[in-house]
Amino acid sequence: MAYKFKSLILLLVLSITKLATGFYIPGLSPTTYEDGDTVPLFVNKIFSDKTQLPFAYSDLPFVCPVEKGGNRWLNLGEVLRGDRIELSKFKIKALENKTCSTLCAVDLTAGKAMEAKHLVSKDYKVEWIIDNLPGATAYRTADGNHKQYEVGFNLGEKDEKKKDAVKAYLNNHFALKILYEKKNNDPNGILIVGFEVEPRSISGLKGACPDYPDNPENPKLEIDANTSQVTYSYSVLWQETKDVTWGNRWDLYLTNSDPQIHWYSIINSLIIALFLSAMVAIIMLRTLNRDIALYNEKDLKIEDQDDTTGWKLVHGDIFRPPKWGGFLAPLLGSGVQVLFMGIFTMILSLLGVLNPSYRGGFVSFTLFLFAFSSAFAGYYSSRMYKVFKGTAWKKNAIVTSILFPGFLFGVIFMLNFFIWSQHSSSAIPFGTFFVLISIWSFISMPLSLIGAYFGYKKAVIEHPVRTNQIPRQIPEQSWYLQPGVR
Predict the structure, then answer these.
(1) CA 296 to CA 273: how far, in whole Å?
(2) For residue 300, what pLDDT band results from cuts at 50, 70 and 90?
(3) What is the C-alpha separation between 33 and 182, in angstroms, rounded?
(4) Can you tell me the distance from the alpha carbon of 379 to that of 61, in angstroms, rounded to the nearest whole number?
């Protein structure tokens, strides 16, 4: 019997070990390529700092179509941030350079051409992906000693010399540079550590590659209502590097170009916060010392002792249940919920679980942590509700789980109609709304009820002072001191 019990324990330990070794987060495990292996290039979206409305690259009517059935599975965070990742028709082989290859030729109508011109004029950038790395624009820092990456590359260029007639040039040739390092334990294997895209606008291709794609003197492809066709081409260059390894390949995307400004802002904010906090503390201490000295005077007259002032004036009313206490307790619980969500998110970020290589992971984990933190919301809301001598703790728990999340959901739902009308990829699909409602209904609300149950079972929080039975009369305030005006 003891032998069987030990065998079961050993089997359980081995099972847990197997699960631990099988744990995988996308982007945290390297993909090894060998000479001639196919390297897929995924297209994602276009985005702009001017409009804040991303669009799916595959939905653009003036670009090359994507592979049919090449949609990549997206997690919840990727959908919410507007990602639409699909497999492109680029033919890229590991360690195989290409001087120039024609991708496709797209026939345009006047409407499609003007849409391209509009997006170029709004400074839209394109995001492509190879080996979970976004295609980047490489540039040098001010001192010229360091290279950095900016996610995405320009959809086109614009000439604003004439304000009444802005010219737009569409980028139709893409010079792809893929940086790699050789794998230590595999002489034939390589790891991709960088993906740079240098777009160019070249006119007069007519379904073929340009003779000299690297020539900066090539005439540019102006896009307007008269543009009838666009030919897309690309070149591929594989370059070995020893400056970047797979473990730090994201550093080029994240490194600040001027860290001194960053630290200056932090120090400046801390000094201002400490200065203001010190001023408030000094004022509070002086007020308290003055009131305490007044209360401790032994030569006060009896009639003066009844005329209390300062802090002593409100000590008998400070813990009186507010008029809208039924909303204060749920709002307190929601605040605690957001606090715990933030704490858990920071812990996961420090542990490296939430990192830029895990695309959409931050949004997904934050959403689920918010749902699971509903237990804390129900617990603390119920305890505050019990302080107000409430008895309907189930009703309070339901209000806690609905009030703040329902408000956010309603605002997002309304804004989604406007985003959907612009055909933006950041518009949340109705299927995703159903998933969010399911998380809210089957995770958030039950956990809020469970937390409220344990919170209501706790002893009521005792007040340090006794509350007066008769509320103190507050003089009628002027109109500019009314809560609605302030």
Answers:
(1) 34
(2) low
(3) 10
(4) 53
